[in-house]
Amino acid sequence: MINKMRSSFLATPYAIWVMICTILPLFYILGYALTNDAGSFTLSNLTAIADPVHLKSLWLSIRVAFFTTAICLLLAYPVALILHNLKLTNKGLVVFLFILPMWMNFMLRILAWQIILSNNGILNSILSTLGLPTLHILYTETAVTLGMVYDFLPYMILPIYNALSKINDQVVEAAADLGANWWTTFTKVTLPLSKDGIISGIIMVFVPALSSFVVSNLLGGGKVLLIGNVIEQEFTLARNWNLGSGLSIILMIFVLLSMSVMNKVDDSENGGMPV
Amino acid sequence: MNKFKKGASSLYLALIFLFLYAPILVLIVLSFNDSMSRTVWGGFTLKWYANLSSNDNIMEALGTTIKITLTSSIFATILGTTAAIGIHYMKKRHAAIMLGATNIPLLNADIVTGISLMLLFTRFTPLGEFSVILAHIAFSVPYVIFNVLPRLQSLSEACFEAATDLGATPMYAFYKVVWPEIFPGVLSGFLMALTMSLDDFTITYFTKGAGVNTLSTMLYTQLRKGIQPELYALSTILFLLAFVLLLVINFKGSARKEVFKNEK
Amino acid sequence: MEFIQFDHVSKSYEKQLILDELDLYIKENTFVTLLGPSGCGKTTTLRLLGGFEKPDSGKIYLNGNDITALPANLRPINTVFQKYALFPHMTIEENIGFGLKIQKKSKDYINDKIKYALKLVNLDGFEKRSIDSLSGGQQQRIAIARAIVNEPKVLLLDEPLGALDLKLRQSMQYELMKIKQELGITFLYVTHDQEEALTMSDTIVVMNQGYIQQIGTPEDIYNEPENAFVADFIGESNIIEGIMIKDELVSFLGVQVPCVDKGFGTMKPVDVVIRPEDVELDAPGKGFMDGVITDCLFKGVHYELDVQCGEYEWLVHTTKYFEVGQKVSLNVIPFNIQIMNKPESEDEEVLKEDDQ
């Protein structure tokens, strides 16, 4: 019988690591947030969120993240459902192809959208060839949302697909056996049973979308200021680490809030974790 | 499923597929474009690929990226695997705490993780490659743990007991029974660490300090300056790399099954 | 046309032919069991009737109507699935009431029906419980309740008792028979357990490799199997090669024994089937063949003996104890000797169109 005591000590290096690199940094950021550059205690870094500029960017971030998540959900669910119902021998490969972009360097994928959306970019050249009016999407909230949807769509497809795979096929057959047509089966059986996947997907999209700053920099050109941008600028341009930390704490609170809301809806064992 | 539904489904899938891959294809095509224009085709060329090796910025960033990614992934795998084994044998309560802490880097916004690590590191060391490596290990270890732990849990304790019943020492039993079972998890954890590290921008951005650049951060600064077609060539290569890497992760499992099938 | 009719139904799955022009009919209000080993096509037949699969060719009729193209949710047929397939996210009453809600029945009607169904399966008062609080046997009964509450014309049961332990299985068998009596509808039951089939059915359809081997009442199937497969699959038997000398006389293992079968011709090779419980043991010399006991196992209900007679080892069931090594003789009354046609080739599977 394995010596459980001794084996669990294998985790000690990791425990130390967690203390240093996960827990401690959080205290640091909290520390900076609650002090000013003279080192004395203050709440002004946290209350700074009430500043109209910051409030505006927070609200913008929430709005963009919300639309991104909603659009991703609406687009991704049918994809996951169709993939789930595919009867192909190479089904794994097809699913793989839809998940693949998730793992490709997202900077480059945003670059590609910059190319497509710019005023003399590909989208507009297609439109003008067709005789349609050109769109000036780049550097607007729309472009940023579009970029985020593009970036995060596979993150929504995968958990929903996995959740659908876990549904017992015979349960779906039972619904038809009892008289349910396709729509009733979907709404009363498939959808509720895929709830875990939906929640997982929402978390995996909403949180990064809320805190992103790269997409808004590249596709928003400085005109779309999200809370992530504000925080980043406090650290790089303004060099006000305290304010930046304060706003980061506020951001963290929002992230925790949205996740606890999600967890109330979720009742699975692992709490909607992508694990 | 009737014909209409089937047709509509295929069309929808095709549209989404196009949406996902069109930008990537644009980049690949432009990487061969003998012109700096984004919309006009100037003929086929490989010069941008050739220019890559003479572009100091890119080469340096590439070297740094490889160094950081390999180092951090290897360490993360070792740390994560031992951690997973330790956690597996812990009391439920302790394990829950450890797993909760492990989830934190996964749940936290990248920007918060990056900033908090930077704040910690600057206290003790100037920022540079070392701090980036540490940061990469920090966010990679959870992926290793969550790849290895399920394998440990599904491995029946009975197998291990059977080995010791037949006379094996715990070490030998581990090496012969446990390790082969968890190895696929260790491998996929390693590969995941590689991909996460290659792909990371935000955390690297905050923990790198001046003068250090990975491919992602270099791209960021370059992208804001203007077009350099070498970047398209670079992106094409990176895409191919990611594609191959992920084919391996996803299909090595089924390849193994094929081998066993034939052996029977 | 009978109540349920399969007309030349063929079905392949992944390039394997499961059913080849199956012709089968089922009378109304009977308990019919499809019995056979794994892969014989019994589940496929059931699923074709339920509407979960479409036949590649052929037609299926229910009460005179062609339902071949009718989707599952429009058929007046309900299924009890092998692994219950209860809706995990719904309570018991939501599960049971699912079909009735779709039929837009009134709330009172639904509640009454749920009460009645739960009473029928001996789970009164379980309405508000959740699925995961139930044991396997209880889940099985809820699955039955959920199906019958819709008053289907036919109830399909796909090996529903497979996951239950022996005692529970046996009590559920009786419950199912009682439920059928109470409801008065047609049951189509699938199983590979021949004891189960013999206990519950009015009619058994023995299948192998997609073909019907024999259709008959449990007694017919057991006592008068028509070929070696059926004889071997149902119960245990001694199947011996023999020659039909003439009507009512058969020769096997070097002895000639009177039997009651006629019409097999003269000097025709046949298969002789004798059930182990029909072999009587006596002192050496008193029977038609002598042998020696080589094994004796106590099975509770009877002793299982191996008796070696020359080259053939007989299987015998008795309630008396015999010692290993003891010399005995065998005897069988003519009525208990069953003669079957020898198949012309190993693959000859007979498609029967018996009238029952």
Description:
The complex is a heterotrimer of chains A (275), B (264) and C (356). With 275 residues, chain A is mainly alpha-helical. Chain A has a single domain (50-265), classed as Orthogonal Bundle (MetI-like fold). Chain A has 14 helices and no strands. The longest helix of chain A has 34 residues, at 52-85. The radius of gyration of chain A is 23 Å and the shape is globular. The two termini of chain A are 29 Å apart. With 264 residues, chain B is an all-alpha fold. Chain B has one domain (56-263): MetI-like fold (Orthogonal Bundle). Helix content of chain B is 82%, strand content 0%. Chain B is built from eleven helices and no strands. Chain C folds into two domains: 4-223, Rossmann fold, CATH 3.40.50; 280-331, Nucleic acid-binding proteins (OB fold (Dihydrolipoamide Acetyltransferase, E2P)), CATH 2.40.50.140. Chain C contains eight helices and 20 strands. Chain C has helices spanning 42-50, 92-102, 107-120, 136-148, 166-183, 194-200, 218-223, 228-233, and strands spanning 4-13, 16-26, 31-35, 57-62, 65-66, 77-80, 154-158, 186-191, 203-208, 211-216, 238-246, 249-252, 255-258, 268-274, 280-282, 289-298, 303-309, 312-318, 327-331, 338-341. In chain C, the strands form four sheets. Chain C has a six-stranded mixed beta sheet with strand order 6-7-8-3-9-10, with helices on both faces. Chain C has a five-stranded antiparallel beta sheet with strand order 13-12-11-14-20. In chain C, strands 15-19-16-17-18 form a five-stranded antiparallel beta sheet, with no helix packed on it. Chain C is elongated and about 75 Å long. Chain C starts with a strand and ends in a 15-residue tail after the last strand. The chains are: A mainly alpha (275), B mainly alpha (264), C alpha+beta (356).
